[in-house]
Amino acid sequence: MSVVKLVLQIILVIFSALLTLLILMHRGKGGGLSDMFGGGLTQNAGSSGVAEKNLNRWTVIIALLWVGIIIALDLMTKFGVA
Length: 82
Prior knowledge:
This protein is an all-alpha fold. It has one domain (1-27, 48-82). The chain has helices spanning 2-25, 33-36, 49-78. The radius of gyration is 17 Å and the shape is elongated. The relative contact order is 0.18. It is a multi-pass membrane protein. InterPro entries: SecG. Involved in protein export. Participates in an early event of protein translocation. The chain crosses the membrane at residues 6-24, 58-76. It is found in: Cell membrane; Membrane.
Protein backbone atom coordinates (compact mmCIF):
# COMPACT_ATOMS: atom_id res chain seq x y z
CA MET A 1 0.00 0.00 0.00
CA SER A 2 2.95 2.34 0.38
CA VAL A 3 3.20 2.46 -3.42
CA VAL A 4 -0.33 3.87 -3.57
CA LYS A 5 0.55 6.47 -0.96
CA LEU A 6 3.68 7.46 -2.89
CA VAL A 7 1.72 7.78 -6.13
CA LEU A 8 -0.93 9.91 -4.41
CA GLN A 9 1.77 12.16 -2.97
CA ILE A 10 3.35 12.64 -6.39
CA ILE A 11 -0.04 13.41 -7.93
CA LEU A 12 -0.70 15.86 -5.08
CA VAL A 13 2.49 17.78 -5.84
CA ILE A 14 1.62 17.93 -9.55
CA PHE A 15 -1.95 19.07 -8.81
CA SER A 16 -0.65 21.68 -6.36
CA ALA A 17 1.57 23.24 -9.02
CA LEU A 18 -1.18 23.00 -11.64
CA LEU A 19 -3.76 24.55 -9.31
CA THR A 20 -1.40 27.43 -8.54
CA LEU A 21 -0.90 28.10 -12.25
CA LEU A 22 -4.61 27.91 -12.98
CA ILE A 23 -5.42 30.37 -10.19
CA LEU A 24 -2.76 32.79 -11.41
CA MET A 25 -4.20 32.63 -14.94
CA HIS A 26 -7.54 34.06 -13.81
CA ARG A 27 -8.24 37.63 -14.72
CA GLY A 28 -8.21 40.07 -11.84
CA LYS A 29 -11.53 41.67 -10.93
CA GLY A 30 -9.86 45.01 -10.27
CA GLY A 31 -9.05 47.13 -7.28
CA GLY A 32 -6.87 44.60 -5.50
CA LEU A 33 -3.34 43.30 -5.62
CA SER A 34 -3.78 42.22 -9.24
CA ASP A 35 -3.93 45.89 -10.31
CA MET A 36 -0.90 46.74 -8.20
CA PHE A 37 1.21 44.16 -10.03
CA GLY A 38 0.09 44.99 -13.56
CA GLY A 39 -3.29 43.28 -13.71
CA GLY A 40 -4.88 46.49 -14.92
CA LEU A 41 -2.79 46.45 -18.09
CA THR A 42 -4.47 43.29 -19.37
CA GLN A 43 -7.99 44.56 -18.77
CA ASN A 44 -8.59 45.41 -22.42
CA ALA A 45 -7.03 42.20 -23.69
CA GLY A 46 -9.21 40.01 -21.49
CA SER A 47 -10.07 36.47 -22.46
CA SER A 48 -13.30 35.50 -24.10
CA GLY A 49 -16.26 34.25 -22.13
CA VAL A 50 -15.79 30.64 -23.25
CA ALA A 51 -12.12 30.60 -22.31
CA GLU A 52 -12.90 32.07 -18.89
CA LYS A 53 -15.62 29.47 -18.28
CA ASN A 54 -13.30 26.63 -19.26
CA LEU A 55 -10.58 28.01 -17.01
CA ASN A 56 -13.07 28.16 -14.14
CA ARG A 57 -14.18 24.58 -14.77
CA TRP A 58 -10.64 23.23 -14.85
CA THR A 59 -9.76 25.14 -11.69
CA VAL A 60 -12.75 23.71 -9.81
CA ILE A 61 -12.10 20.16 -11.08
CA ILE A 62 -8.41 20.23 -10.11
CA ALA A 63 -9.27 21.81 -6.73
CA LEU A 64 -11.80 19.06 -5.94
CA LEU A 65 -9.35 16.33 -6.94
CA TRP A 66 -6.66 18.03 -4.84
CA VAL A 67 -8.92 18.06 -1.78
CA GLY A 68 -9.94 14.45 -2.41
CA ILE A 69 -6.32 13.30 -2.54
CA ILE A 70 -5.53 15.17 0.68
CA ILE A 71 -8.47 13.49 2.42
CA ALA A 72 -7.44 10.08 1.07
CA LEU A 73 -3.86 10.54 2.28
CA ASP A 74 -5.11 11.66 5.68
CA LEU A 75 -7.35 8.61 6.01
CA MET A 76 -4.52 6.32 4.95
CA THR A 77 -2.28 7.86 7.59
CA LYS A 78 -4.97 7.84 10.27
CA PHE A 79 -5.86 4.17 9.84
CA GLY A 80 -2.30 3.04 9.19
CA VAL A 81 -3.08 1.58 5.78
CA ALA A 82 0.19 2.69 4.29
